[in-house]
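Quick one: C-alpha coordinates for this chain, please?
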Amino acid sequence: MTTRHFTLPTGDGWAAAVRSADATPLKRCAIYTRTASTAGPEQETSVLHAQRVTCLECIRRQPGWIALPVRYDDRGLPASGTERAALQQLLVDVDAGHIDVIVTMKEGGG
Protein backbone atom coordinates (compact mmCIF):
# COMPACT_ATOMS: atom_id res chain seq x y z
CA MET A 1 0.00 0.00 0.00
CA THR A 2 1.34 3.44 -0.92
CA THR A 3 1.12 6.24 1.62
CA ARG A 4 0.31 9.66 0.20
CA HIS A 5 1.41 12.79 2.01
CA PHE A 6 -0.10 16.21 1.46
CA THR A 7 -1.12 19.30 3.36
CA LEU A 8 -4.68 20.60 3.39
CA PRO A 9 -5.91 23.93 4.73
CA THR A 10 -7.52 23.52 8.14
CA GLY A 11 -9.63 25.21 10.77
CA ASP A 12 -11.80 28.26 11.04
CA GLY A 13 -8.88 30.53 10.19
CA TRP A 14 -8.80 29.12 6.67
CA ALA A 15 -12.55 29.55 6.20
CA ALA A 16 -12.41 33.10 7.54
CA ALA A 17 -9.41 34.05 5.41
CA VAL A 18 -10.72 32.53 2.18
CA ARG A 19 -14.16 33.68 1.16
CA SER A 20 -15.98 33.91 -2.13
CA ALA A 21 -16.65 37.30 -3.74
CA ASP A 22 -19.96 37.64 -1.85
CA ALA A 23 -18.27 36.90 1.54
CA THR A 24 -19.71 33.38 1.76
CA PRO A 25 -17.30 31.11 3.66
CA LEU A 26 -15.93 28.52 1.29
CA LYS A 27 -16.67 24.81 1.72
CA ARG A 28 -13.65 22.58 1.10
CA CYS A 29 -14.84 19.79 -1.19
CA ALA A 30 -13.13 16.45 -1.73
CA ILE A 31 -13.96 14.39 -4.79
CA TYR A 32 -14.00 10.61 -4.36
CA THR A 33 -13.92 8.44 -7.50
CA ARG A 34 -13.88 4.66 -7.91
CA THR A 35 -13.90 2.14 -10.73
CA ALA A 36 -15.16 -1.44 -10.67
CA SER A 37 -12.71 -4.32 -10.68
CA THR A 38 -13.80 -5.45 -14.17
CA ALA A 39 -12.56 -2.30 -15.92
CA GLY A 40 -9.21 -2.34 -17.76
CA PRO A 41 -6.54 0.37 -17.17
CA GLU A 42 -7.64 2.61 -20.06
CA GLN A 43 -11.30 2.30 -19.16
CA GLU A 44 -10.51 2.97 -15.47
CA THR A 45 -8.70 6.20 -16.35
CA SER A 46 -11.57 7.30 -18.57
CA VAL A 47 -14.21 6.47 -15.93
CA LEU A 48 -12.30 8.25 -13.15
CA HIS A 49 -11.84 11.32 -15.35
CA ALA A 50 -15.54 11.42 -16.28
CA GLN A 51 -16.57 11.07 -12.64
CA ARG A 52 -14.18 13.84 -11.60
CA VAL A 53 -15.43 16.21 -14.33
CA THR A 54 -19.04 15.62 -13.31
CA CYS A 55 -18.21 16.20 -9.63
CA LEU A 56 -16.28 19.39 -10.48
CA GLU A 57 -19.31 20.70 -12.37
CA CYS A 58 -21.49 19.98 -9.33
CA ILE A 59 -19.04 21.87 -7.10
CA ARG A 60 -18.89 24.84 -9.49
CA ARG A 61 -22.70 25.19 -9.31
CA GLN A 62 -22.67 25.53 -5.52
CA PRO A 63 -21.94 29.02 -4.15
CA GLY A 64 -18.94 28.97 -1.86
CA TRP A 65 -17.80 25.43 -2.72
CA ILE A 66 -14.20 24.88 -3.80
CA ALA A 67 -12.62 21.61 -4.97
CA LEU A 68 -9.51 20.55 -3.10
CA PRO A 69 -6.61 19.51 -5.35
CA VAL A 70 -6.08 16.18 -3.57
CA ARG A 71 -7.30 13.17 -5.55
CA TYR A 72 -9.13 10.34 -3.83
CA ASP A 73 -9.24 7.70 -6.59
CA ASP A 74 -9.68 3.97 -6.02
CA ARG A 75 -8.97 1.91 -9.14
CA GLY A 76 -10.34 -1.54 -9.83
CA LEU A 77 -12.05 -2.08 -6.50
CA PRO A 78 -15.57 -3.35 -5.81
CA ALA A 79 -18.09 -1.14 -4.04
CA SER A 80 -18.60 -3.65 -1.25
CA GLY A 81 -16.54 -3.07 1.85
CA THR A 82 -14.36 -0.14 2.83
CA GLU A 83 -10.91 -1.65 2.32
CA ARG A 84 -9.99 0.97 -0.26
CA ALA A 85 -6.86 3.10 0.26
CA ALA A 86 -8.27 6.36 -1.14
CA LEU A 87 -11.52 5.98 0.80
CA GLN A 88 -9.61 5.33 4.02
CA GLN A 89 -7.42 8.42 3.43
CA LEU A 90 -10.54 10.46 2.71
CA LEU A 91 -12.08 9.38 6.02
CA VAL A 92 -8.87 10.25 7.89
CA ASP A 93 -8.91 13.72 6.31
CA VAL A 94 -12.59 14.21 7.20
CA ASP A 95 -11.90 13.21 10.81
CA ALA A 96 -8.96 15.65 10.88
CA GLY A 97 -11.28 18.50 9.82
CA HIS A 98 -9.66 19.07 6.41
CA ILE A 99 -12.83 18.48 4.39
CA ASP A 100 -16.28 20.05 4.63
CA VAL A 101 -18.08 18.25 1.78
CA ILE A 102 -17.53 14.94 -0.05
CA VAL A 103 -18.70 14.84 -3.66
CA THR A 104 -18.99 11.47 -5.42
CA MET A 105 -21.09 9.66 -7.99
CA LYS A 106 -23.22 6.59 -7.59
CA GLU A 107 -22.03 3.98 -10.04
CA GLY A 108 -24.44 1.65 -11.76
CA GLY A 109 -28.17 1.67 -12.00
CA GLY A 110 -29.53 0.57 -8.64
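The chain is about 35% helix and 15% strand.
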